[in-house]
Amino acid sequence: MSISQTILDIAEICAQQGVNRLVLSPGSRNAPLTLAFSRHPKFSHHLISDERVAGYVALGMAQSVKHPIILLCTSGTAALNFGPAISEAFYQHIPLLVFTADRPPEWIDQNDGQAIRQRNVFENHVKKSFELPVSPDHKDARWQIHRIVNEAIISSSTGVPGPVHINVPLREPLYPSDQSWDYNSKVPIIKFRQTNKTLSQKHWSCLKDQWAGANKILIVGGQNPYSSTLVAALTHIQSHTKVPVLGDVVSNLHRMTNTVRHSEVILGQEDSRLEELHPDLLISFGGNLVSKNLKLFLRRYPPSNHWHIQDTEFPTDTFQNLSEIIPMDPGAFFSQLSDVVPSVPESAWYQRWQTEESRACEQINSFVKIQQFCELQAVDIVLKAAKKVHLHVANSTPVRWADLIGIAPEIIEISANRGTSGIDGCTSTAVGHALTNGKQHLLITGDMALFYDRNAFWHQYKIPNLKIVLLNNHGGGIFRLLDGPRKQPELEELFVTTQSLSAVNFAQDFGMKYLYCNNAEDLTKNLSQLFEPYDQACILEVKFPNHMGDIYQELKASFKNSYE
Ligand SMILES: Cc1ncc(C[n+]2csc(CCOP(=O)(O)OP(=O)(O)O)c2C)c(N)n1
Prior knowledge:
CATH architecture of the largest domain: 3-Layer(aba) Sandwich
Structural class: alpha/beta
Shape: globular
Strand order of the largest sheet: 2-1-3-4-6-5
Bound molecules: thiamine diphosphate
Strand content: 15-25%
CATH class of the largest domain: Alpha Beta
Number of domains: 3
């Protein structure tokens, strides 16, 4: 009984294309692919039993190595569980090569086990979906399979990267017996020669005219992985033209000087003061923004022109006033823009934003200092202590507190699942990062997000370079902050969904070092312990005397009255 040579060719093509990291989940239907990949000398693999976790771990790995990671699972609901991570990868433009083993097509809807409609099952959240022919040994089928695997790899990593799905119907036998296992190094490899996009002189002169016609130009960065080219280009355009650069906490511009990082505070002011701050030319790049006030402000005060820099053909009109799509890499665009637009020695507009920034920075620091121990203060203490770490912030309030406080240049990079803002994979994504490099990784997370994704540690891999700060307010604390839910009598039961778990058993289950504190002093002490080396991940659970609800209302009010 033998496994088709074409299945081995799939692994060989991936290996020769440099796609040689695999995250797989157990099953029988996927056994031929499992063995084809894991027996290949060039492959490394991680076995993760929970497919939802496997998806997010692969996402974190792909984000870290900036290269497609292979995901593999068996047929049935196993495949559906890749869905959440695939949608996050789609919106964050992260390359994943998703293989789902499947029953032969004639068995779908025939009451056969683990048989669901997998063809195109992720079509709304992948760049491309493919289904391989069920009989892979006919010469034309082999040619088609070779071509599809090459095309899928190219599609996942070129243009705007993203997830690509290959559904693989497989007949029995699924397990080899006395078969010689040879990879055919002569498999066809299709190379894609990436070009660097730029604009014609005609387009540059149009943009130059718009630039010249604008008095108040603003550059806004949404979610973006750290890029030294982009930081260098923006630093130059800012000093050359005195145009303010607003960087959301997930824009990874924190290692740039003079960026405006407290837009949530600055734009939380009375409306009357915001009028003066609105731009007439807005230039944006990157993905989602965390700051709600910034989004509302840019929608409220539409500029005459809005350029969005992103290598894509479909418009992302987050502020409802998009006028230009510039399909270029932002780093390349801003470095070329410096050669096209005139230098400006000084600008009151630039100075105004710098003044707002330093005032807001002072304001948030003094507000945090005088509070009783709470999540906001805890995040402030943690962020000030964190040095040379890759920071991961979970959705809900942790990412919002990080955005309000701002992060220091000592933070290597920041990651957050802001593509879809789910709380279901924040821990697994950080685990994926930590499994790919020796850097120190720090995750700041809420309790719902951590316990929801506790299977992120249900595997055999030790993660000594992962440190976790758990802000345990026993439920979805964010709902105690939002005007809508906090006024409902059902708040605690139906929105906060109060929960009683603490992390002691969690840490024990997964052999982690456990630390605990419930005040600022002990937090500072425990943080130095947290960053000590251990042979497994370490978790510091932080508890709070009271809820943040009223403190947050006070904070918002302080933004409004900041000029009185
Ligand atoms: C998968 C998923 N389910 C539900 C939600 C809705 N949601 C947003 S925040 C939140 C509560 C998160 O609680 P926790 O992680 O403890 O953070 P906290 O609000 O306390 O900061 C929920 C349920 C979501 N974003 N993602």
